[in-house]
């Protein structure tokens, strides 16, 4: 049952260090009225056709947590859930966790929908930029994907 | 001014102060001044959608009117998550 360690962590935060997914889930489980939790964890992907050495996430410190809170609050209003977002920055290796988005709700549908909403808006509205270094010695900034804009827009509303 | 990602690399610095010679200057006015000051940004700033902006830590449109002391950031479309 709920590990009290998760309760002391702010529900929305940007940090360089890794996070413990179980502690985040347990913190949602401890919220009154929670009946289920849906979560998404993003990790650094290395394409076997072009192996990655590392990925560095740059962000806009003065803006980041405010933007993340805006996204979490929009999900909480829209789906009547409790939302948690933890997003890392700095240099990460393939397989390392980048982000956790999770929602706790009385019933599953709101939790699933809210977790998808959180990720769609994180992709388009949180001030992070990914820089990739490949094993072949090349490197470059990841380009934004138009599919991500379309995914966020399917929710058919600005988040604030 | 703050610059992030490849804009920071092209400008060669993460931040700088800019004085605008106008009252009621908009973000579009500022971008024209920056394009003249930083030839390395000129082509990027001319392409719609290639560069995004925030004023005082909120995403902003080019019609946004600027005030003295505003923190303006320029960056590529975000790629977090």
Mind explaining what this structure looks like?
The complex is a heterodimer of chains A (160) and B (81). Chain A has 160 residues and is α+β, with helices and mostly antiparallel strands. Chain A contains 4 helices and 8 strands. A 4-stranded mixed beta sheet of chain A has the order 1-4-6-2, sandwiched between helices. In chain A, strands 5-3-7-8 form a 4-stranded antiparallel beta sheet. Chain B is built from 3 helices and 4 strands; from the N terminus they run E-H-H-H-E-E-E. The chains are: A alpha+beta (160), B alpha+beta (81). Chains A and B meet through strand 3, helix 2, helix 3 and strand 7 of A and strand 3 of B.
Please summarize what this structure is.
The complex is a heterodimer of chains A (160) and B (81). Chain A has 160 residues and is α+β, with helices and mostly antiparallel strands. Chain A has helices at 21-29, 61-79, 108-125, 146-153, and strands at 12-15, 36-43, 52-59, 82-88, 90-92, 97-105, 128-134, 139-141.
Q: Beta-strand percentage of chain B?
A: 5-15%
Q: Tell how many strands the DSSP assignment of chain B holds.
A: 4
How would you classify the helix and strand content of chain A by structural class? Answer: alpha+beta
Write down the secondary-structure element order of chain A.
EHEEHEEEHEEH
Q: Can you list the strand order of the major beta sheet of chain A? A: 1-4-6-2
Oligomer: heterodimer
* Rg from alpha-carbon coordinates of chain A: 16 Å
Question: How many DSSP helices of chain A?
Answer: 4
User: What's the overall average pLDDT of chain B, rounded?
Assistant: 94
Assign the structural class of chain B, choosing from mainly alpha, mainly beta, alpha/beta, alpha+beta, or little secondary structure: alpha+beta
Low-confidence segments of chain A, given as residue ranges, are none
In which range does the helix fraction of chain A lie?
Answer: 25-40%
With helices defined by DSSP (H or I, 4 residues minimum), what is the helix count of chain B?
3
Q: What proportion strand of chain A?
A: 25-35%
Shape assignment of chain B: globular
Largest sheet of chain A: 4 strands, mixed
């Amino acid at each position: 049952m709920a590990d009290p360690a998760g309760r002391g962590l702010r529900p929305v935060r940007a940090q360089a260090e890794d996070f413990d997914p179980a502690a985040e889930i347990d913190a949602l489980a401890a919220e009154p009225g929670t009946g289920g939790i849906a979560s998404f964890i993003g990790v650094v992907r290395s394409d076997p056709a072009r192996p990655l050495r590392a990925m560095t996430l740059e962000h806009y410190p003065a803006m980041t947590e405010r933007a993340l809170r805006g996204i979490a609050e929009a999900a909480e209003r829209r789906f009547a859930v409790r939302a948690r977002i933890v997003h890392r920055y700095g240099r990460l290796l393939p397989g390392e966790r980048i982000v956790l988005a999770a929602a706790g709700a009385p019933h599953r549908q709101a939790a699933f929908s809210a977790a998808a909403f959180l990720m769609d808006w994180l992709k388009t509205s949180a001030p992070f930029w990914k820089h990739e270094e490949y094993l072949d010695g090349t490197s470059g900034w990841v380009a934004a994907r138009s599919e991500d804009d379309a995914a966020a827009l399917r929710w058919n509303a600005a988040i604030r | 001014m703050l610059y992030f990602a490849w804009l920071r690399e092209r400008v060669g610095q993460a931040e700088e102060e800019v004085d605008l010679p106008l009252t009621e200057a908009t973000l579009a006015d500022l971008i024209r001044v920056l394009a003249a000051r930083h030839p390395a940004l000129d082509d990027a700033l001319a392409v719609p959608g290639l560069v995004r902006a925030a004023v005082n830590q909120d995403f902003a449109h080019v019609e946004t009117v600027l005030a003295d002391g505003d923190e303006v950031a320029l960056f590529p479309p975000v790629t977090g998550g």
